Amino acid sequence: MAWWRRRQARHHRLYATSRLAQAGLIDVRQAAADLEAAAAGAPAPLADLHVLHVLHVTELWLARLNTARATWWQDTPMVRTASCP
């Protein structure tokens, strides 16, 4: 859990702008409390730690989604084809 403690401020900044919270899918206060407990080394079931990991990865993916699209996504015009008889 040393990794969590070293990056705790980054995690809190990420959750402060949480898109999942904006969508009403998570409670940021609960996520922050769970993060604090994990960083403090509180005993937790492996499933709880997995949920924190998935939450973190999802937030990172959502945060980068718009910038990633702007850099590599390319719209192509729709090509109209004749209908099959």
How is this structure best described in words?
This protein is mainly alpha-helical. The chain has one domain (2-66). Helices cover 68% and strands 0% of the residues. The protein is built from 5 helices and no strands. Helix 2 packs antiparallel against helix 4. The model has no long low-confidence stretch (mean pLDDT 76).
Q: Which structural class fits the helix and strand makeup?
A: mainly alpha
Q: If helices are DSSP runs of H or I spanning 4 or more residues, what is the number of helices? A: 5
What does the largest sheet look like? none
Q: Mean pLDDT, rounded to whole units?
A: 76
SSE run: HHHHH
Number of strand segments: 0
The unreliable regions are: none
Q: Please indicate the count of domains.
A: 1
Q: Beta-strand percentage?
A: under 5%
Describe the protein's topology.
Blueprint: H1 2-6, H2 8-16, H3 19-22, H4 28-40, H5 46-72
Helix pairs in contact: 2-4
Which characteristics define this entry?
mainly alpha; 85 residues; 5 helices; 68% helix
